[in-house]
Amino acid sequence: MPTTKPPIVLVHGAWGGGWIWRRVIGPLRDAGHEVHAVTLTGDGERAHLLRPDIDLDTHIADVLGLIEAEELENAVLVGHSYGGMVITGAGAVLQESQPGRLAGMVYVDAMVPAPGEGWGVAHPPEIVASRLAAAAENDNCLPPPDPEEGFGLSEADAAWLRRRHTPHPFGMYRQPLNYDGALLESLPRLFVDCNQPAYPTIAPSRQRVRSEPGWQVAEIATGHFVMVTEPDALVEQLLAFAAGIPE
């Protein structure tokens, strides 16, 4: 039966895949939304496509390709962590070339880049150094972190992530995202702040959305992988955001 509710496109972060949204996809569909979970090139079940030259443009094309193939209109883009870089780039392309394809954007504890910024631009020097070294030793790929350290996950959930995480392409780490910021300012935008415990690389984005106009901010008292630890709370925020978008 056709629905007037906006379709939702979920974009994972580094080391993930469409699989990481498993606990929120069902409830969102049960609420009447068409839901698609992208797996970015080189990640998840597409890890066999991993190669050194994958960059941010590759991942933006993944999202745009899904929206085009599924003929989505009035969609909500949802990005987690690094996925915030991807939805920002994809959103800007859509707003410039196909107004009406996009209804809103949700950043789930995600990077919120200003025009000209890259994924690693605001990371502390020690994190930049460690990631550059790790990528240099792994054919320009970034090995996943230990999910038991700093994410507030249960032992079972940490084990699940450890089994599923794959090395992430690293070509986009210092690649600037050049786009017109004004293109996104008219869209409803929500930042979901997951800060117990807070993932340190998201700190600049947490500050940015509280200092710039046009942002809704919601806090969920959990760690970085909210779709794993507090899926019901995340679904509640996504449904409320989608319900508030003018038709």
TrEMBL record:
Annotated AB hydrolase-1 domain residues: 8-236
InterPro entries in UniProt: AB_hydrolase_1, AB_hydrolase_fold, Sec-Metab_Biosynth_Hydrolase
Pfam families assigned: Abhydrolase_6 (PF12697)
Descriptive protein name: Pimeloyl-ACP methyl ester carboxylesterase
GO molecular function: catalytic activity
Species for this entry: Microbacterium thalassium
